[in-house]
Predict the 3D structure of the following.
Amino acid sequence: MEILNLDENKIEQIEGMSTDYPYCMHQRNLTNIVIPWHWHEELELGYLETGTSIITTVNAEYTIHQGDGFFINTNVMDTKRNAIPGQTALEINHIFHPVFLSGHFKSRFETKYLNPILKNRQIEVHIIRHGTPSGNAILSNLIKLKELQRNPNVEIQTRNLLSETWLLLQEELLTNFHGTICPSEYENKLRNMLLFIHTHYSEKLSLAEIASSASLSAREAQRCFQRVLHQSPSEYLIAYRLNHAKKMLLETNDSITEIAFRCGFSDAPYFSKTFRKDTGMTPKEYRNYQFSAQF
């Protein structure tokens, strides 16, 4: 599981994204990582270069096969993972803020071409299948976008090609989706609790504190997590802490004890026991194994 970067307003910061150029491309290896539950204003339009992955939202689960593409709408709460453990899964993802195509607020580009999709909450995730005329055209453009990023000074070409791709996507989407749905009360409450956990995971947290972040009782918080994520708040918190610990084990030389405390575990023995239950290895074994596997 990756760890989300939040700014001072608790909004997810996407690596490579800037206000003066709100587009970036991520080449992400999903083989051994899980993208945690998250949401952001930026749109995602990408494809799976290798393997099979799964995108899960509050309402559904989507499987993306090698060669297929995907679209994730603005502010959709989702998580991603490799569908086949041990098999390589490589994702190419073009991420951009709607303003990259609209130009400015309430422009004709926004109202005519973007809003029909952005404001249709029935459109959460759309799978772009290769082998269909529209799917092939979209996927061909996404591959061209990837190749384009190898060159310098491609900002205008990138926006032009992405605009062309958006028109193809819009035609495909609006023939498949009709009507709108609103996020459930459970989803809105869950967002608040996940944001609280992502911000305070390194601290000592109680169920009451997590529940309070969404103005819920402890019992209601348990019900919300179980209904949407099918796990308890404490199970989610431990998984989030463990995966931050895995990241630190691989990217720092910090001691096991220091990592345990920085990730919110009360002591090193409990951390090691929990880590071994999750991975089958001690933290030290995990660090040594992953390091040797790189060479």
Q: What stands out?
A: The first helix runs from residue 99 to 102. The mean pLDDT is 89. The chain has two domains: 23-174, 185-293. Strands lie at 23-29, 34-38, 43-50, 52-57, 61-65, 69-72, 78-82, 90-96, 125-128.
